[in-house]
Specification:
It is built from 5 helices and 7 strands, in the order E-H-E-H-E-H-E-H-E-H-E-E. The protein is of the alpha/beta class. The strands form 2 sheets. The chain has a 5-stranded parallel β-sheet. A two-stranded antiparallel ribbon has the order 6-7. Helix 1 packs across helix 5 and helix 2 packs parallel to helix 3.
């Protein structure tokens, strides 16, 4: 059986925290954090596929919290902000912070949250796959460059041996193409 994606739910309101965890518990493994210190502790202990983050949590301001999360997680970790205050962040600030989705408390249903998470996990999976392919391509390219370098070196050594044999021969040697003499050694001269 495939392991469920791991999600950190950051919410200080116990009722809303229960709503969020019950909404996602069937399809995801959820850890919870109710303040900034708990978020930091969880991030030190685990890596997460996604983080549902209330911007107004005790301990760290919303922006500090998001920046801290971004510093401690990889770029493929989905960050979904849930807040009751529109003025918390502008769309430009949200984009710069690499927020995947922005939900307003009280304005989305459990079904909508599950859809956002499902789409996010699909998006994350595609990005991870692209990253994996890019890494494989980079490794293959490096191996190809090493092979070309090794073969070029071997070819240069072979050419040097051939040139030495050609020039040091005790008999005169020449090569011709279409009746034209291309190379002669010193002995023939």
């Amino acid at each position: 059986m495939k392991e469920k994606p791991h999600i950190l739910v950051v919410e200080d309101d116990s009722h809303y925290l229960e709503f969020l965890t019950r909404t996602i518990e069937h399809d995801y493994r959820a850890d919870v954090a109710e303040d900034g210190d708990q978020v930091l502790a969880r991030l030190d202990q685990h890596s997460y596929d996604a983080i549902l983050c209330d911007l107004r949590s005790p301990g760290l301001s919303g922006k500090e919290l998001v920046h801290t999360i971004r510093e401690r997680t990889d770029e493929e970790t989905l960050l979904i902000v849930i807040t009751g205050f529109e003025q918390d962040w502008s769309p430009v600030e949200a984009t710069e912070a690499h927020i995947y989705f922005y939900l307003k408390k009280g304005e989305f249903s459990p079904r909508e949250l599950r859809k956002v998470l499902k789409n996010g996990m699909d998006f994350r999976r595609e990005r991870l796959e692209k990253r994996r392919y890019a890494l494989q391509l980079e490794q293959l390219n490096e191996a190809l460059e090493r092979t070309v370098e090794e073969r070029t070196h071997a070819l240069c050594e072979s050419e040097a041996k051939y040139r030495n044999l050609f020039q040091q021969s005790l008999v005169g040697i020449y090569t011709q193409l279409d009746g034209k003499i291309l190379f002669v050694n010193d002995r023939l001269c």
